[in-house]
Amino acid sequence: MKCLLLFLLLVAQLAGAQPAQVILLRHAEKPDDPADLHLSPRGEERAGALVSLLGRSSPFTSNAPVVALHGTRVTKHDHSHRTGETLAPVSKELGLPVNTTYDSDNYVAAATSVMNTPAFRGKTVIVCWTHHDLAQLAGALGVHPTPDHWKEKTFDRLWVITYSDGRADLHDVPQRLLKGDTYR
């Protein structure tokens, strides 16, 4: 009985720290050359356009302002700078740094941090990640069942995860920012 009470207390504390929503996105477009670790010109265009979607006047964050931006850490294994570059214009607009504490394979620790940081309670956290770990990150953030993996050429979507009554709901949203983006 004592263990159950401690468990329920922990769950209540964690639920009290969770953000109102987490917006997940993949880094913007990359060049055709796999050795190039930066955004392509179209990727740079998308990163700039994300300000209109995720910046101060964002329709997604009017009730829960953005309190943190997270991207992947550059490592020997995953040495791309694209997640940070994708968030850089939004970072400048909002005056928030991009936290790059976790490498892309360490999505469980990143999700745990997002869900348990008291300063994020009731706010929005934006996370830009690599596509090969994005679905697992969504699962680690409480989305069940874990969504399907993003396709290799998909750069124009957002996953908006909202939390209510201990439940995580994922909404797949088109960005509709650049010519050629999907609209459904």
Keywords:
184 residues; alpha/beta; 5 helices; 6 strands; 34% helix; disordered N terminus
Written description of the protein model:
There is one protein chain. With 184 residues, this protein is of the alpha/beta class. It is built from five helices and six strands; from the N terminus they run αβαβαβαβαββ. It has a six-stranded mixed sheet with strand order 3-2-4-1-5-6. Helix 2 (41-54) packs parallel to helix 3 and helix 4 packs across helix 5 (131-140). The longest helix is centred in the first third of the chain and has 16 residues, at 2-17. The protein is globular. The termini are far apart.
Side-by-side strand order of the widest sheet: 3-2-4-1-5-6
Mean pLDDT: 89
| End-to-end distance | 49 Å
In terms of quaternary structure, the protein is single chain
Structural class by sheet pairing and helices: alpha/beta
Reconstruct the topology from this structure.
Blueprint: H1 2-17, E1 21-26, H2 41-54, E2 66-70, H3 82-94, E3 98-99, H4 107-116, E4 124-129, H5 131-140, E5 157-164, E6 167-174
Parallel strand pairs: 1-4, 2-3, 2-4
Antiparallel strand pairs: 1-5, 5-6
Short account of what is shown:
The chain has 184 residues and is an alpha/beta fold. It has 5 helices and 6 strands, in the order αβαβαβαβαββ.
